[in-house]
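Methods — Computational structure assignment.
A single polypeptide chain was analysed. Its primary sequence is given first, followed by the predicted tertiary structure written as structure tokens.
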Amino acid sequence: MSSRPELRGRAARLARLLPAGAGRAARAPFVLLVVLLLGGGLIGLLVLNSALSEGAFRLDDLERETKSLTDEEQSLQRDIDAYSAPDALQRRARELGMVPGGDPAFLGPDGTVKGVPSVAAVDPAAAREPLVLAPEALAGDPATPGTAPAEPDPAAATPQGAPTPAPYPSDAQPSPYPTPGR
């Protein structure tokens, strides 16, 4: 005897329409579905791993570039500090023919002069000091290593003590470089 109860009427007719082995599902579609899910998961992991590796390489490149730019910034800051040191400014000013100013005089709000102005004196020793060169020039010409920088021609320089006319505003030429901070 069978473990199933015997069906009558409409239920018996419907049961005959269904195949007898319907209790077991086909295994092939289930196995195919599991294989596709596992394969898709593995491919997804491979794509994710590749993206992470690419990001790591990009991060390495950016860190290297940051280090290079930081080194360059520090080098430029050292150059700025060297050029803005008081002794370097004084030497450069003497190169350009400037002399230390005399005693200043001040005007009061009512127009009175306070102090005794004096003319700046030319120091003959300052005229004989060598030029202050840029750090690049001190290292020599990069095209020909080992060569010393060229010395300026003293005969071409204007004589010290000769008055230099001050430029008038109409003679002033605008600088091709923008003013910092504007």
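Note: The CA atoms of residues 54 and 162 lie 68 Å apart.
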